[in-house]
Amino acid sequence: MTNRTPFIVANWKMNFTVPDALKFETALTHELKATGEVEIAIAPPFTALYSLGVTLAETPYKLAAQNVFWEESGAYTGEISGAFLKDVGCEYVIIGHSERRQYFGETDETVSKRIRAALRDELVPVMCVGETLPEREANKTWTIIERQLKMGLASIFLKDVERFVIAYEPVWAIGTGRTASSAQAEEVHSMIRDWLSKNCDGATAERVRILYGGSVKAKNAREILTQPNVDGGLVGGASLDPIEFANIIRCAPQRSQSN
Ligand code: PEP
User: What is the 23 CA–ligand 1 centroid distance (Å)?
Assistant: First the structure.
């Protein structure tokens, strides 16, 4: 029995205005009277971070951002630094999401820079890793994930790795309605934990939370979230409906709290 607190993160992507975000929060709080031992974070678009952050401060829910730039401030039009995210109450930041890699030229190098910036500004990175369908079909799943882990965790202190959240998101399962089977998810999650154990140490590997992401819905959540090395979910599309999202949270196993 693990003592990692299950963690469910809503990734709203480019959805919801400020009024939509606040309406969601009211509906979720109404639907889910208690969160139990599950930690929950919401990653709205940048424009809703401040207002949602003010509201979430009165709730058990945490605030997360969807990206962070690596410089602290200056002439970087359109970018947001970790200090700014911290300023509006963010605790977590999603880094290296496959949509960023696919549409915005994110690479393992830029992911690594963003991770270091997040840690510098005391944000916890939710680092996304995952293979595309051609990579899986060519039996390259582990080669890809290992490369992403190596680059993402390069020159990071062990005390920081411990706080990391890693999200395994097979690219072919994101927004496609196609989910990895619980066995496929558990296989990759346990390989990630073994890798952490060999490349960091056993205690660190035991503490790092590894989330699964890719078309998680209330109807498949229990099967996936109860796998031994799955510590929660990164939920995109299904996190836009407060009732569906609450039902996913209810599927997370209750484990003893320690994170
Ligand atoms: C995501 O955006 O991280 C994600 C997993 O999306 P979806 O749940 O819609 O597949």
Answer: 21
